[in-house]
């Protein structure tokens, strides 16, 4: 939640090379998914003191897809999210949102503004504030135009908060301080806060960590419900949770040593000898 001011021209200049060209004129904030891809990484390498946390990593996420990413500790999953969100600069490789937006040329706040929401492992909510206000505050950091239209949109804004409360199943807790919520409820609230910004792509790093079984399945329900409204990338170790998200047909990417080790349905990757050896069989 920064006080960063959305500077459309600055983003346009750097991320779009001034003139988007190529027949499709992309305006900042408008993500070109005409080829069906919301995110692609191509040959991305990140080194820390010579150690390659990401090693020529390439992957693509379809618009509207819910992609699960699994892999052993140290595989580079969080580093990948750091690169996508502009926290870590890659040594080499391409990172694009849609066809035209070069994320490597943007900083962290700009990337957040353009439509990538990130959920870290630890819930970060405003503990003193009621649940309702948490959602309201999240919306206030919305793109500049929203703030200026706020007076007119008040009823719409209220409806959106109510909708989100229902979605994260916290209607009954709206007036309670967020600090009083259970861990699972806080995690859902934080996802709700991200949703208030209407992200095009949501990155979730081990969202089920520390949750009870019930909370984990409630979270799976929530993410399944969001399917189609935004694209999602979910990193998770909990295989029951992954199974609940991927179903029989969903694609699962297995990372190891900074690259993609396997990719396919959960059933396919689970039976891949390389995956069994490096991850599941341990
Ligand atoms: N800022 C950093 N400086 C040095 N090494 C780092 C840094 N960030 C990550 N690494 C290293 O890069 C490798 C990949 O780490 P990363 O956190 O991306 O793995 P991960 O797949 O998210 O693992 P986990 O499942 O444990 O969360 C690890 O060996 C880690 O120690
Ligand atoms: Mg990690």
Description:
With 282 residues, the chain is of the alpha/beta class. It contains eleven helices and ten strands. A six-stranded mixed sheet has the order 6-7-8-3-9-10, with helices on both faces. The chain has a four-stranded antiparallel sheet with strand order 2-1-4-5, covered by helices on one side. It is globular. The chain starts with 7 loop residues before the first helix and ends with a helix. Adenosine-5'-triphosphate is lined by residues 48, 53, 71, 73-79.
Give a quick precis of the structure.
With 282 residues, the protein is an alpha/beta fold.
Any key phrases for this structure?
282 residues; alpha/beta; six-stranded mixed sheet; four-stranded antiparallel sheet; globular; disordered N terminus; binds adenosine-5'-triphosphate; binds magnesium ion
